[in-house]
Amino acid sequence: MNKQELIESWNQEGLKINPRVLDAFRKIKREDFVPQEVKNFTYVDTALKIGYEQTISQPKTVVLMLGWLELQQGNKVLEIGTGSGYNTALISELIKSNGMLYTTEIIPHLYEQAKERLRNYPNIEVLNIDGTKFSKGKLDRIVFTAGLNQMPSAEYLNNNLNNGGIFLAPIGPEETKNMIKIVKRKDRLEPTKLGIFNFVPVTH
């Protein structure tokens, strides 16, 4: 299956994809972010192993999550779990050159690989740290690409998100997680459940 065939299969399925996300998906080459041994499966709609018990997420999951994030040009974003760097590249394309993306990868080898792949993206800073402890002022978006066991505290969200900011993460005690989107308003936090997904757990 190639990229266009994958997109057509989503159309037949009735999957609603944000047009800006779809444009980014067309532009960024997933094959540049998958290991050589699985390149033949680049546009099969499945997660692929990238080593160290980590995966590059299923393309459908990636485009859905990016749509739920409602990324805008100029956003300041934190991605926790760089992994292959593919999702990172897509976010970079969506926030454009006036945006800034901090992405964290705690596994040294994956960090080095991703940093090399993303070296030509000027609006990305790749960090080899535990992203749950990252602090660099308030953000417009926070996204976890690995599963959390429990909901973040209200204190964490209020301290790290601007008003109107969005937090998105797969959350739950097992491998099967509920995708949770939380929007920060001036006077409240608004959580929404978006469906069940399988994710590897976040590494600390």
**Helical coverage, percent range:** 25-40%
Question: Which CATH architecture would you pick?
Answer: 3-Layer(aba) Sandwich
The end-to-end distance, rounded to whole angstroms, is 36 Å
Principal-axis shape: globular
Number of helices: 6
Task: Please report which band the strand proportion falls in: under 5%, 5-15%, 15-25%, 25-35%, 35-45% or over 45%.
Answer: 25-35%
The total number of structural domains is 1
Classified in CATH, the superfamily is Vaccinia Virus protein VP39
Rg of Cα set: 16 Å
Say what the CATH topology is: Rossmann fold
Mean pLDDT: 95
Query: Under the CATH scheme, which class?
Result: Alpha Beta
Order of helices and strands: HHEEHEHEHEEHEEE
